[in-house]
Design goal:
CATH topology of the largest domain in chain B: MetI-like fold
Number of strands of chain A: 10
CATH class of the largest domain in chain A: Alpha Beta
Largest interface: A-B, 23 and 20 residues
Distance between the termini of chain A: 31 Å
Number of strands of chain B: 0
CATH superfamily of the largest domain in chain B: MetI-like
Oligomer: heterodimer
Number of helices of chain B: 10
CATH architecture of the largest domain in chain A: 3-Layer(aba) Sandwich
Number of helices of chain A: 9
Order of helices and strands of chain B: HHHHHHHHHH
Structural class of chain A: alpha/beta
Radius of gyration of chain A: 18 Å
Distance between the termini of chain B: 23 Å
Number of domains of chain B: 2
Strand order of the largest sheet of chain A: 6-7-8-3-9-10
Shape of chain A: globular
Helix content of chain A: 25-40%
CATH architecture of the largest domain in chain B: Orthogonal Bundle
Strand content of chain A: 15-25%
CATH topology of the largest domain in chain A: Rossmann fold
Radius of gyration of chain B: 22 Å
């Protein structure tokens, strides 16, 4: 997939979360990691790329399609994407199974039986057999995040977008969730991932976008970024993060 | 700490006995001359009034919930004049006495519209009055749904209407339940004011009975019981429903 953004700006009041972010990826990029310090604009860029947010200025295109700026168009666009958030954001009043089947039925027009079958298949694949009928509050953080990944994958999204999916998890659960993401990447799923897990990004990503203060500092292949960072900011960032791991 | 059923029943008995003793104490202190015979004559009227009160309250509840829901939506509308209008309605209705609203509504507005159905007018006015309170209870519940839930709803591709239906309302329902039940209990009690526009509900019947017997307490005590018979189970039901909807968020 080829991502292109041109002068994308998104403001919250006086603060510009994205401040003229411009980037181009290679046409072969399939797993794209958004890296950078907290507050740099990773989450906002991820939401803009997934049409969950519409930028105030600038435009985004994925392959040859330009993302729409109207609410109706953005809704259709994001129905083709799957999102996973830092805080899981499962619906607390529904079971793990219902969290997956409800959007399948109501948004994607699938029948009850077919939706249940698809949801069970994913829950089992992601190691949640036996937890289908539990509410989110009865699941561990890692289990909730895997259920959230199952929900995002259920409608077979073109693009899976993950916003710091392991930041709220302990190391063991982080491992569980990263295993799942790596398997998806290896199975050919197109992924955009905002993360602080730099060694994981190094293993899985084939393209890196490095953001600081709402601006794109680097956009290069993962190999180039990790071995030959072009900017001083990126060098400092990589050094700081690899100090203790 | 969980308490055994036997102990719970014991507590109920003790509290009930204490209340009864207190009640008996104050009445014997003033040596109230009871006279139940005249009241008994009016039992059929009393029953009629009770049924009327419950029937009109039930309809007014439906009206109040619908009106409250619309006002809540209006206060969250995208267009400012709609928000202003619904906000003003809520404030004016909540801020003025129901008695005045009933009098103006029945003698002025209904007359102007040529509606000569006090029961109809009364139910609508009562429903609107309680609905204004419900609107704020509903709004509080809806606005307590976190931004991350709304984002999740957008992320799975729900439209605005679907977000209300599948995400906001089911979660807000549980949070609104205690306040809503309290308001519906108030509605049943407030329905007593409808007697001022000539509706023959329970209070009106008791007033008629008292006028004939000169035995007001013998009328008003059964009146209080007749309300409690409905309001207490309603509160109990609400607590059970809350338990059923309980899940950690």
């Amino acid at each position: 997939m080829k991502l292109e953004t041109h002068a994308v700006t998104k403001r919250y009041g006086a603060h510009a979360a994205l401040d003229g972010a411009t980037l181009t990826t290679g046409g072969e990029a399939r797993v794209i990691a958004l890296l950078g310090p907290s507050g740099g604009g990773k989450s906002t860029l991820l939401r803009v790329l997934g049409s969950l947010l519409v930028p105030d200025e600038g435009h985004v295109s994925i392959d040859t399609r330009t993302l729409p700026h109207d609410e109706e168009g953005a809704l259709l666009e994001r129905r083709g994407n799957g999102f996973v958030f830092q805080g899981y954001n499962l619906f607390p009043h529904l079971t793990a199974l219902q969290n997956i089947t409800l959007p399948l039925r109501e948004v994607h027009g699938m029948g009850e039986e077919q939706a249940t079958q698809r949801a069970l298949e994913l829950l089992h694949r992601l190691g949640l057999a036996g937890h289908e009928y539990k509410r989110p509050s009865q699941l561990s953080g890692g289990q909730q995040q895997r259920a959230a990944i199952a929900r995002a994958l259920a409608p077979k999204p073109r693009l899976l977008l993950l916003d710091e999916p392991t930041s709220a998890l302990d190391p063991v659960m982080t491992g569980e969730v990263l295993d799942v993401i790596r398997e998806l990447a290896e199975a050919g799923q197109s992924i955009i991932l905002a993360t602080h897990e730099i060694s994981f990004a190094r293993k899985v990503a084939d393209w890196v976008v490095f953001l600081v203060a709402g601006k794109v500092q680097e956009s290069s292949t993962a190999v180039d970024f990790f071995t030959r960072p072009q900017t001083e900011l990126a060098r400092q960032y990589l050094e700081g993060l690899s100090k203790y791991r | 700490m969980p308490v055994s059923n036997a102990r719970y029943a014991l507590y109920v008995l003790v509290l009930f006995a204490l209340a009864a003793a207190g009640f008996y104490g104050v009445f014997s202190a003033v040596a109230y001359p009871w006279n139940w015979s005249g009241v008994w004559e009016y039992r059929a009227q009393f029953a009629y009034g009770w049924l009327a009160t419950m029937g009109l309250s039930l309809v007014a509840m439906v009206v109040s919930i619908a009106f409250g829901f619309l006002l809540m939506l209006g206060r969250r509308a995208a267009w400012l004049p709609v928000r202003m209008f619904c906000g003003s309605v809520v404030e004016v209705v909540r801020g003025s006495p129901l008695l005045v609203q009933l009098l103006i509504g029945h003698y002025i507005i209904a007359q102007a519209l040529n509606i000569d159905q006090p029961l109809f007018t009364g139910i609508i006015l009562l429903g609107c009055f309680e609905g204004a309170y419900l609107a704020e209870i509903f709004r509080g519940a809806v606005e307590s749904i976190s931004a991350s839930q709304l984002e999740a709803a957008r992320a799975v591709g729900f439209s605005k209407a679907q977000t209300y239906r599948f995400v906001i309302i089911p979660q807000a329902l549980r949070r609104a339940l205690p306040g809503t039940t309290g308001q519906l209990v108030s509605l049943i009690k407030d329905s007593s004011l409808l007697s001022v526009i000539g509706i023959e509900e329970l209070v009106q019947k008791v007033k008629i009975m008292n006028a004939a017997n000169f035995a007001p307490l013998e009328g008003y005590l059964p009146l209080a019981l007749a309300y409690l018979v409905v309001t207490l189970p309603l509160s109990h039901l609400a607590r059970r429903l809350e338990g059923r909807f309980a899940y950690e968020t």
